Amino acid sequence: MESAARAQLAHSQPAQSQPAQSQPALSRRHEAGAGSARGMLLTLLGEFVLPDEGAAWTSAVLAVFERMGVAEKATRQALMRTSNAGWLSAEKVGRRTRWLLTPAATRLLTEGARRIYSFGPPQAWDGQWVLVQVRIPETDRRARHVVRTRLAWAGFGSLGPGLWISPHVAREQEAMRVLREARVAEDAHVFVARRTGLSDTREMVADAWDLPEIEAEYERFVAEFRAPSVPADVLLRQLELVHAWRRFPALEPGPAARAAAAPLDGHQCG
Questions:
Q1: String of b and e for 4-39 (b: at least 16 CB within 10 Å)?
Q2: Is residue 55 a contact partner of residue 10, using CB atoms and an 8 Å limit?
Q3: Predicted pLDDT at 260
Q4: Which tens digit of pLDDT belongs to each residue from 112-142?
Q5: pLDDT attached to residue 215
Q6: Distance CA 9, CA 77 (A)
Q7: Residue 25 has what pLDDT?
Q8: pTM for the structure as a whole
Q9: Which of 10, 45, 60, 113 could anchor a disulfide with 49, C-beta 3.0 to 4.6 Å?
Q10: 185 vs 259: CA distance, rounded Å
């Protein structure tokens, strides 16, 4: 089913032109798993386009989104906004348009796939934490958004304004890259350290991550996707499942932190 979907996206020859031109008016936030056409487009690109040729026809994307009940205008807006953000480039083939993943998008989606599909049972952990401390003016909304969304996607939780923690020491360099790209590196500090005492680790983790809400999200996920039979549209169901699942790396402290702080049953979904 996956190979057929990839072939349709990369090789289908539409009967009529599908101009990918529309004013990008999609205003919903672009975050991991956001319930928007653009968020679903990234899931589609990562799941079916990235593993193949890194290309998709406008008509094929429109056809998939139509099956999901997404209006053509919203789909075209999602394509345009994703292109404007530097993740897609348009290639004209006669009167048709094919969308190609840019090198930046290939890196983003490859890392995203690795994180999504490696997310699961606890691994050995040496007890070290990455700490990020950064000062961002209230007026710099762009920087605050970049730091919040990108650090959350990297598995960081917030202990308060400007203070983030993560048990994933290997993501220290990613945190630094986020701070540089947000242009706040000059007002930031990054540490790798161990807890030495005072308050309980479980309390720290509970302050940084909303564990009850995360558990509720897992329960909703299981309830929605535990099906006794094959769905009527396997491709769409797979897209919906991956789209829902890719939110969890941004919600979770990760199995390592859970193991140190009385893990909930929810993490076993991985």
A1: ebbebbbeeebeeebebebebebeeebbbbbebbbb
A2: yes
A3: 62
A4: 888 787 766 666 777 889 999 999 988 999 9
A5: 85
A6: 18
A7: 25
A8: 0.66
A9: 45
A10: 31
Q: What is the 3-state secondary structure (H, E, C) of the chain?
A: CHHHHHHHHHHCCCCCCCCCCCCCCCCCCCCCCCCCHHHHHHHHHHHHHCCCCCEEEHHHHHHHHHHCCCCHHHHHHHHHHHHHCCCEEEEEECCEEEEEECHHHHHHHHHHHHHHHHCCCCCCCCCEEEEEEECCCCCCHHHHHHHHHHHHHCCCEEEECCEEEECCHHHHHHHHHHHHHCCCHHHEEEEEEECCCCCCHHHHHHHHCCHHHHHHHHHHHHHHHCCCCCCCCHHHHHHHHHHHHCCHHHHCCCHHHHHHCCCCHHHHHC
Residue 139, token pair as written in the block:
């007026």
Q: Can you read off the two tokens belonging to residue 3?
A: 């190979």
What is the C-alpha to C-alpha distance for residues 140 and 138, in angstroms, rounded to an integer? Answer: 6
Residues 123 and 76: their CA atoms lie apart, in Å, by 42
pLDDT, one tens digit per residue, over 192-223 is 998 887 777 888 888 888 888 888 888 888 88
Radius of gyration of the chain (CA): 20
Closest among 243, 247, 248, 250 to 155, alpha carbons compared = 250
Question: Contact 129/194 with Cβ under 8 angstroms?
Answer: yes
203: which residues sit within 8 A by CB, 6+ positions away?
none
Residues of the chain with pLDDT under 50: 13-35, 263-270
Q: How far is 64 from 159, CA to CA, in rounded Å? A: 41
| CB atoms inside a 10 Å sphere around CB 130 | 25
